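Q: What would this chain look like folded?
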Amino acid sequence: MENAESESTRKRMKSDVVLRFKEGEGVMIGSEMDQKEEFEGIVAGSEEVELAIAHILEKIERFTQLVSESLESGKTMFQKISDEFEERMIIN
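A: My prediction, written as structure tokens:
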């Protein structure tokens, strides 16, 4: 009886692995098919992640540009105020 169970289990496992189909470059085994499907899922997820990362990097770049412009504007304002103060000190 144990022999019959192990044989049927072996047959099921064998049928899963022996399942073959032709695709592009030859024949793939069932476990290889699973790996390929998993990889394709990862690639699709990777494309979404790359898009999200690109979006975040774009936001960071915009923020960096805004901060840079603000610093430049503050520097210019400080220079004007400094010049005005210096003129007032010389006049008095």
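The longest strand covers residues 20-22.
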